[in-house]
Design brief:
The complex is a heterodimer of chains A (about 290) and B (about 375). Chain A has about 290 residues and is an all-alpha fold. Chain A contains 13 helices and two strands; from the N terminus they run H-E-E-H-H-H-H-H-H-H-H-H-H-H-H. Chain A has a two-stranded antiparallel ribbon. In chain A, helix 1 crosses helix 13. Chain B is built from ten helices and 20 strands. The longest helix of chain B is centred in the middle third of the chain and has 18 residues. Classes of the chains: A mainly alpha (about 290), B alpha+beta (about 375).
């Protein structure tokens, strides 16, 4: 028995080992390094110099614009994603014929097979001078600028992260007991009240999962603002790249990164609380 | 009947693609009645209930509720409420909010005080006062059943629809709920329409039983009529336990018909339809109409193969040479010593006229539908 237990533990350790090692080397250690950097000082020639000071955190307001832009973009982007994704997920889960459902779901996922970088580059050309603006000029709308605008960034975000929003909402709607909808109608609820009182509330775990997933990815977003925002729309991600690679102010960059992580954790916890409170103990765990 | 029926079906047919689930139903349910739709799964009973609730639309014919044609009326505008199979309670609401759900839909809006007091009344009616703030998943099956009842009754519907409401409960609780439902129906005096596949449930609770098979109504009557005077072999076999003996019509003697059984015995049976001499028939003999006695008396001689002691009665499986195994039920009288043991020879008797002869569907082809029904929706 004793040997059995030992073998069992050994097997568990072997199975978990690679993942644990990976996480330690590429997540835990870098995170500790960043935390240490964030209370340090910038060396005169750039980089890090050991110290213990909260000066970097005190200096955060210097990047207030980047924070502000990110804090606006992330929830707005996630909200825009949600508004587009919910009707799609609703249709897939409750309206689409069974035989089409799998095909339609595959269509949602297929864009993931191409890298986001490639797809965002494609949007650069679609929105750029020779893309849609050229077409619009052809029908008489001259001088319409699409690329390098906040709208282009929002479009890129919705396009890039839509599947991450659709799938968890789809899952929670698919699980929804249809008889609850009949019970609601039977008790006198119009289709709209049934949607608001039953469908929406019971799909909230999926909504919150999708929302926090997209929002957290957006908090660290770098690619889409750079390619479609053209540097005019400046985000924390861009600030980090700038601080670490150009001005080589590692401690300040680290302080910003740590703050970003803390904000993400707060967002996650809040989303989780809201969804468990409104819809009971059920939740959709994808992250 | 002078009063407007609470529920009326006129020539209602429901088809799903090529499959006909309900075919040409005519039915009128008088006010304040407790009606059971009884039949095997796929017989169309649930489809009928769902057409009353408005979840299905008839392909042909009309459904009336209190004289109003319901064509095109959505479920939320019908004066009926349903207790769903497995209850379909809202998991995100507590007991009181589940019960108050229907009240909150009322327009013009009810005051929150009225909602609270009516929800409280409904909960008290199903003996759940004080459970208002419980979560649904904290309740037992029986309590969930009561919440579903309170939720359906709180809107004071003209008709309460019950879709296999007791199927998920254990036997003891089921019996209690049967009595409670009956009392409740008498108390509030509205029509209850119950869908069940359990003949005992249908017979014990309802004023009228509507036996369905293959999408049609086979027989409509009071429980004792259905049990004592089944119109065909299907009803005789489906409602209650019975012995079915094969035989041929040997002749007629007045109202009764003489049947020659497989072993040559001739018994006198009642009939429901005209039978030709020589026609193959099935004879139904209820277990309780058989009487057991010491060998030498009676109509059949047999040997007890099995005894199931049920407390007040005992059921015997008795092997009769040339006929097969007969099921007999005998009252158990304490101290009477009237129990027979397996292996013991017994004589079986029955009063003349208790057997009922039906044309055998296997040989006549007239009643094919009785045994061949398509499994569609339950």
């Amino acid at each position: 028995m004793h040997g059995n237990k030992f073998r069992h533990n050994l097997l568990t350790a072997l199975l978990l080992g690679p993942a644990a090692a990976w996480l330690v080397v590429f997540l835990v250690l870098p995170f500790i390094a960043i935390a240490v950097f964030s209370v340090g000082e910038r060396a005169p020639e750039g980089g890090y110099q050991a110290a213990f000071t909260l000066a970097q955190y005190a200096n955060l307001p210097a990047r207030a614009t980047a924070f502000w832009n990110t804090m606006m973009l992330a929830p707005m982007g996630a909200l825009a994603c949600l508004l587009v994704a919910y009707p799609v997920a609703y249709y897939l889960a409750l309206q689409a014929a069974q035989r089409w459902r799998l095909i339609l779901l595959a269509l949602v996922v297929i864009p993931f097979w191409t890298s986001l970088l490639m797809r965002t580059y494609a949007w650069m050309y679609v929105l750029g001078g020779r893309g849609i603006p050229a077409l619009l000029a052809y029908v008489g709308f001259e001088d319409i600028r699409l690329i390098n605008t906040p709208g282009a960034v929002l479009l890129g975000i919705v396009y890039g992260y839509l599947p991450l929003m659709i799938l968890p909402i789809y899952v929670s709607l698919e699980r929804l007991d249809r008889r609850l909808l009949e019970a609601s109608a039977d008790l006198g609820a119009t289709p709209l009240s049934t949607f608001l009182g039953v469908t929406l509330k019971l799909s909230l775990p999926g909504v919150m999962t999708g929302f926090s997933l997209v929002m957290i990815l957006l908090l660290g977003e770098y690619l889409i603002p750079t390619l479609l925002g053209g540097g005019k729309v400046f985000f924390i991600g861009n600030a980090l790249v700038d601080l670490f690679l150009q001005s080589r102010n590692w401690p300040f960059g680290s302080a910003i990164a740590i703050t970003l992580v803390l904000v993400s954790v707060v967002v996650l916890i809040a989303a989780n609380r809201i969804s468990t409170r409104v819809s009971g103990a059920r939740r959709v765990d994808l992250i | 009947m002078t009063a407007v029926p609470d529920i009326e079906f006129r020539g209602v047919t429901k088809r799903y693609g090529a499959v006909t689930a309900v075919s040409g139903i005519d039915l009128a349910v008088p006010p304040s009645a407790f009606v059971a739709l009884l039949g095997p799964s796929g017989c169309g009973k649930t489809t009928c209930l769902r057409m009353i609730g408005g979840f299905e639309q008839p392909s042909e014919g009309q459904v009336f509720i209190r004289g109003q044609d319901m064509a095109g009326t959505p479920p939320y505008r019908r004066p009926v409420n349903m207790v769903f199979q497995q209850y379909a309670l809202f998991p995100h609401l507590d007991v009181e909010d589940n019960v108050a759900y229907g009240l909150r839909q009322a327009r013009p809006r009810l005051s929150s005080r009225e909602i609270a007091s009516r929800a409280g009344e409904a909960l008290a009616m199903v003996r759940l006062a004080g459970y208002g703030r419980r979560k649904i998943h904290e309740l037992s099956g029986g309590q969930q059943q009561r919440v579903a009842l309170a939720r359906a009754l709180v809107n004071k519907p003209a008709v309460l629809l019950l879709d296999e409401p007791l199927a998920a409960l254990d036997k003891k609780l089921r019996t209690d709920m049967q009595i409670e439902l009956q009392n409740l129906q008498r108390e509030i005096g509205i029509t209850f329409v119950l869908v069940t596949h359990d003949q005992e449930e249908a017979l014990s609770m309802s004023d009228f039983v509507c036996v369905m098979n293959g999408g049609r109504i086979v027989q409509l009557g009071q429980p004792n009529e259905i049990y004592d005077e089944p119109v065909d072999l299907f009803v005789a076999d489906f409602v209650g336990k019975t012995n079915l003996l094969n035989g041929k019509v040997a002749g007629h003697s007045g109202e009764l018909v003489d049947i020659a059984l497989a072993d040559g015995t001739i018994i006198a049976a009642r009939k429901r339809t005209a039978l030709q001499k020589g026609e193959t028939v099935s004879v139904s003999l209820r277990p309780e109409s058989l009487s057991l006695g010491a060998p030498g008396s009676g109509r059949f001689k047999g040997i007890v193969r099995n005894r199931i002691f049920l407390g007040s009665t005992a059921e015997y499986a008795i092997e009769v040479q040339g006929i097969g195994t007969l099921l007999a039920r005998a009252d158990h009288l304490i101290g009477h010593g009237n129990l027979f043991k397996p292996g013991e020879p017994v004589a079986i008797g029955f009063a003349a006229g208790t057997p009922l002869a039906f044309p055998d569907p296997k040989n006549n082809g007239t009643n094919q539908r009785v045994t061949k029904h398509v499994e569609i929706i339950s």
